[in-house]
Specification:
This protein has four helices and three strands. The protein is of the alpha+beta class.
């Protein structure tokens, strides 16, 4: 099982709306995440907009690819893209670059 952590930056003026959107994630989006191997998926948001994501999955690249092929993911990414800084025309899920794990206490 891979443990993956990534960072994104939410625009400071969109923090409240970003949090509100995650209070009611679409059921079909939740199902798609589960079906494509996303488990123990969490998002943490710092007051300045730094977003820390964490997920456990057998294969992160396969999980990303699996979601990339889902229509619900395309809709979600399009809606959520406006909340992030510095995407340079990419979708938020295309900017999920894993951080290097340097320590893990099991």
């Amino acid at each position: 099982m891979q443990r993956v952590c990534f960072l994104l930056k939410v625009k400071a003026d969109r923090l409240d709306e970003y949090k509100a959107r995650h209070e009611s994630v679409w059921p079909e989006m939740l199902n798609a995440l589960s079906e494509t191997g996303w488990t123990n998926y969490s998002l943490f948001l710092r007051p300045d907009g730094l977003l820390v994501g964490y997920v456990e999955t057998p294969d992160f690249n396969a999980a990303l690819s699996g979601m990339a092929g889902r229509e619900v993911n395309a809709r979600w990414q399009k809606e959520m893209g406006e909340f992030f800084e510095a995407l340079d025309g990419k979708r938020p899920d295309e900017e999920m670059v894993p951080l290097q794990e340097v320590f893990h206490l099991a």
